[in-house]
Write a structure and sequence with these properties.
Helix content is 50%, strand content 5%. The protein is mainly α. The chain has a three-stranded antiparallel β-sheet.
Length: 286
């Protein structure tokens, strides 16, 4: 104990600080840096942690954090938010030298449940548009109007966005999916321009850095709860294809936009004619 103290003498007040006091100090500092949706998610998660408010933070154990998660009485989205909150508090507590290990790493939250991949209805797409001014709703609209996978969307670098030609070159997973060119639909162009103006390496960044899928799901779940929907990001991709098919789009162009190997042709070079065909196809979406 003496050797530990000599390595890093602790402040007596920090040594006695409670979970609630750590939360207050952390929220005062970091909420101003977060989006409104994430702030709302953290505030909501905090309400489910009342059983540990008065515990000294240095004495807070993983099982007590897990108890808050398991007994919150809510679904996977809220449970995931509580786990995420404890992760933020642990990071902050380590900055203050209150703890030397992250107990939150030992907690777990239920995974996102499998779905039958049900596309958005036209009314649901309209409902998303009605929230277009809210943080991160732009990403959902980009999903719906460009058909990206979640890893592809979060991996788009601003260097691969061509605002002159109004296209994005990105994609992952398969040979046909990689480095595919997808035109920017006119309705979502303002969102892309606004994101580009932020000057980050990645188009959809969190605090100026690459946004992980787990972090993105926090934003997604807040918006879905607000809309009273149960969709996943991948269902936007199914919606994109379904709406193009309903609009009578060319099958080959749909495959190119989705990054699928077309059954009708082999390799296809992205000529100016091809890109214009893709723009004409994507503009069929209303």
């Amino acid at each position: 104990m003496l050797a530990e103290y000599n390595r890093n003498p602790y402040d007596v007040d920090m040594h006695k600080i409670t979970v609630e006091e750590v939360y207050q100090k952390w929220s005062d500092r970091d909420f101003t840096k977060m989006s409104k949706s994430l702030t709302g998610s953290m505030k909501s998660a905090w309400k489910h942690c009342s059983r540990v408010y008065g515990i000294k933070y240095r004495e807070l154990k993983a099982y007590q954090m897990q108890d808050c998660i398991d007994k919150c009485g809510c679904g996977y989205a809220t449970q995931g938010a509580i786990k995420n909150l404890f992760g933020h508090l642990d990071d902050f507590a380590m900055e203050l030298d209150i703890i030397v290990k992250r107990c939150s790493d030992l907690t777990s939250a239920p995974p996102i449940p499998d779905t039958k991949k049900i596309p958005f209805t036209d009314d649901e797409v309209t409902a998303v548009w009605q929230l277009q001014g809210q943080d991160w709703v732009d990403s959902i609209l980009v999903f719906l109007y460009m058909g990206w996978r979640i890893s592809e969307l979060l991996g788009i670098k601003t260097a691969n966005v061509d605002l002159v030609e109004q296209t994005i070159t990105a994609g992952t997973k398969t040979r046909n999916g990689k480095n595919r060119i997808v035109p920017i639909h006119p309705r979502i162009l303002p969102f892309i321009q606004a994101r580009m103006a932020e000057g980050n390496e990645y188009l959809f960044s969190y605090n100026g850095k690459h946004c992980s899928s787990s972090q993105y799901y926090i934003f997604w779940n807040v918006i879905m709860e607000q809309l009273h929907m149960q969709h996943t990001p991948h269902e936007c991709r199914h919606t994109f294809r379904s709406r193009l098919d309903s609009a009578g789009a060319n099958k080959v162009c749909i495959d190119l936009l989705m990054g699928h190997k077309s059954k009708e042709v082999g390799e296809r070079v992205y000529t100016h004619k091809t890109i214009q065909e893709l723009k004409d196809t994507i503009n069929l979406l209303l």
